[in-house]
Write a structure and sequence with these properties.
By secondary structure, this protein is α/β, with parallel strands linked by helices. The protein is about 45% helix and about 15% strand. Helix 1 (about 20-30) crosses helix 4 (about 75-90).
Amino acid sequence: MPLDAILWDYDGTLVNSVPKNINITQSILADIAPHLTGANLPHWLQSESAYHHANHAARNWQDLYQNYYGLSAQETTEAGALWAKYQRSNTTEVRLFEGIASLLHSLTSLPHGVCSQNDASTIWALLKREGVDTPFHSIMGYNDVEGGQQKPHPAGGLQCVEAIFGAKRPRQLMYIGDHQGDVEFARNLNQALGSDCNVIAVTAAYSGATPQRWQQQPDHVADTPQSLLSICQSYL
């Protein structure tokens, strides 16, 4: 059964945003949790390798902020509300992973969407700047989904699917992410869409993900954007 659409995560999947995310997080901590700055800056924000480890070990961003960075539940809620503001003002450069642009150009026959906990306007701006926005029909970011319905809850995926297909239900989708929570999201979206739709979970391991350690296993693992293209093309 061929694919009807490809849905993507953003950070760590389409783009390498680690330097920017570290910078933004440090700015947010300085605003709402100054006790976690300077000499007390969490270990996981002191290098890209440490950030990768924490990011891929955490179940979701709330887990990352509370159990790795040390924020309280209230501070985590405040951090989430500030993310889009700080992201829009931060000038640290973010680029597509090498090979992603050509991959997207090879798959323009399919509609694409993004389900991310990043800011939708920032994602659109990056895709347009890189000249790869045309295949994307919908982007659902942090501000488009209720706080209690962020990934791995399927709400953002359902909104994305509705924006692409309207009342029509797709028969087969692919969701590509770099986190165990993305695999959970794909499974939850599959359940929400019902048995008439199959959602294929693919992990982009080229950003440092270690799916072999996860309890939730994807259907495919792509070690490079080139191998990701081959996986996608096998379903056309």
